[in-house]
Amino acid sequence: MTASAGSSGFIEVKRRGLMLVLSSPSGAGKTTISRKLLGLEPNLTMSVSATTRPKRPGETAGTDYHFVDPTEFGLMINRNEFLEHAKVFDNYYGTPKAPVFEALRGGRDVLFDIDWQGTQQVAQNARDDLVSVFILPPSTRELEQRLKSRAQDSAEVVAGRMAKAADEMSHWAEYDYIVVNHNIEESVTQVRAILTAERLKRQRQVGLPEFVKGLREGQ
Ligand SMILES: Nc1ncnc2c1ncn2[C@@H]1O[C@H](COP(=O)(O)OP(=O)(O)OP(=O)(O)O)[C@@H](O)[C@H]1O
Ligand SMILES: Nc1nc2c(ncn2[C@@H]2O[C@H](COP(=O)(O)O)[C@@H](O)[C@H]2O)c(=O)[nH]1
């Protein structure tokens, strides 16, 4: 079914769900933007990754991440359960594929907070459904300040993430859109605008031929 009468009585055009990926150097603000966007967009579902990294204070298992040990992570790879997976900052991270495909099949959009390695893998497997956004910090000093003020990682971890920020940022040109996160509300507005425009792309509205045919026949 690609077009059907909705509660309004008008024909509604069905749309294939899309995958909205946010990447950035650690601390630039992906998680903050994601949480606010999810609160504004009921048709958007967060992909919950599996990771071998320890849980941070305030994080909830099953909501922020599925926290698994390296053995379980290896078993998940062997069972081909990941859409993508990568080693990031000495820990393993991966996107379980089943919930993503279930959401997409239902016409829901899926939001991912993954690094450039994962984005490259998703692009190889599902380029047509991917919309990628790279979030840049306003400055290196501000990035370090944000990592410190989050106060969830040791000084050693913060230093390690800052050391890898330049390498991470070298991948910006592989992304469809770039948002510089000066102000959180402005960044959320910009990512939301990207999502809105991408949803309206002709090729994502799979019911359009049937809908326009109906219009031309006077429905
Ligand atoms: N525009 C902003 N202005 C000031 N502070 C911000 C802004 N955006 C995010 N922050 C703060 O910066 C810190 C890091 O943000 P966040 O955890 O969202 O980053 P992240 O990119 O998801 O990091 P990671 O990759 O490590 O998960 C948080 O304390 C957050 O509140
Ligand atoms: N390739 C993947 N990268 C992921 C995934 N989940 C998170 N990430 C990225 O890891 C770093 C660190 O995250 P943190 O929560 O430990 O601060 C960050 O860049 C995330 O985007 C994933 O499933 N695949």
From TrEMBL:
Q: Which UniProt keywords apply?
A: ATP-binding, Cytoplasm, Kinase, Nucleotide-binding, Transferase
Q: List membrane-spanning regions.
A: none
Describe the reaction catalysed, as an equation.
Answer: GMP + ATP = GDP + ADP
Note the superkingdom of the native organism. Bacteria
Entry's InterPro entries?
A: GK/Ca_channel_bsu (IPR008145), Guanylate_kin-like_dom (IPR008144), Guanylate_kinase (IPR017665), Guanylate_kinase_CS (IPR020590), P-loop_NTPase (IPR027417)
Q: Tell me where it mainly resides.
A: cytoplasm
The Enzyme Commission number assigned here is: 2.7.4.8
Its localization reads: Cytoplasm
Indicate the segments forming the Guanylate kinase-like domain, all copies: 17-196
* One Pfam family in the UniProt entry: Guanylate_kin
Positions binding ATP in this chain are S24, P25, S26, G27, A28, G29, K30, T31
Q: Name one GO molecular function term.
A: GMP kinase activity
Q: State what this protein does.
A: Essential for recycling GMP and indirectly, cGMP.
Family the UniProt entry places it in: Belongs to the guanylate kinase family.
Q: What HAMAP family would the database entry show?
A: Guanylate_kinase
- Name of this protein: Guanylate kinase
